[in-house]
Amino acid sequence: MGLFSFLKNAGAKLFNKDKKEEPKTTATDVNAEQAAEVARRQKESLLKSIIENLKIPIEGLDVELHDDKITVYGSTTTLADKEKVILALGNVEGIAEVDDRIVVVPNEEIQELESRFHTVVKGDSLSKISKQYYGDYKKYMVIFEANKPMLKDPDLIYPGQVLRIPELQA
Fold it and tell me: Which one of 60, 123, 150, 167 has the largest count of C-beta atoms within 10 Å of its C-beta?
């Protein structure tokens, strides 16, 4: 469990930032507070749908959104799934922090090592990142596979995106 930082202005544009589409309130502060609460719940629902659509197996998935910080709850059997949830939520534009409260109940037969995270910068490619972490540019598919289903194509990464860099298995 921990707090993970992301670039707030990078990532998938899940939330509409167009001021014209925000709720217009001219009534009391109570109505404005109610409208803000409805908008927050809608955003939380959208964030949960990301994980559900990626089919990452998390039992009891729940998210709480407070400004630009998400707290995510649930349980899973693999560290990889936990890391994918953190990255899928953190790589949404407007999200600066993910507070991880996901519990991993590991399968005793599988020993997993925690992955490193890499923030993509201009000029990066998966092969360049692979060379940096593994000393071999040809191992880029290890990184690609570790970031599925968030990545659909090894050539489609963008600056500010955070990727999982798993330890190589001996």
Answer: 150
For the chain, where are the E strands, in sequence order? 2-5, 59-66, 69-76, 97-104, 116-119, 162-165
pLDDT at 1 over 70: no
3-state helix, strand, coil in the chain (%, to 5): 35, 20, 40
pLDDT band at 60 (very low <50, low <70, confident <90, very high): very high
27 pLDDT more than 70: no
Judged by DSSP in three states, 17 sits in coil
pLDDT of residue 11: 75
Q: Which residues contact 138 (CB under 8 A, 6 or more apart)?
A: 127, 130
Element (H, E) at 134: helix 126-134
Cα 161 to Cα 6: distance, rounded to the nearest angstrom: 8
Query: Which backbone phi and psi does 71 adopt, to 5 degrees?
Result: -110, 125
CA 84 → CA 26, 39, 47, distances in Å?
Answer: 41, 25, 13
User: Per-residue pLDDT averaged across 30-44, rounded?
Assistant: 88
Tell which CATH classification among 3.30.43.10, 3.60.15.10, 3.10.350.10, 3.30.379.10 matches the domain 113-170.
3.10.350.10
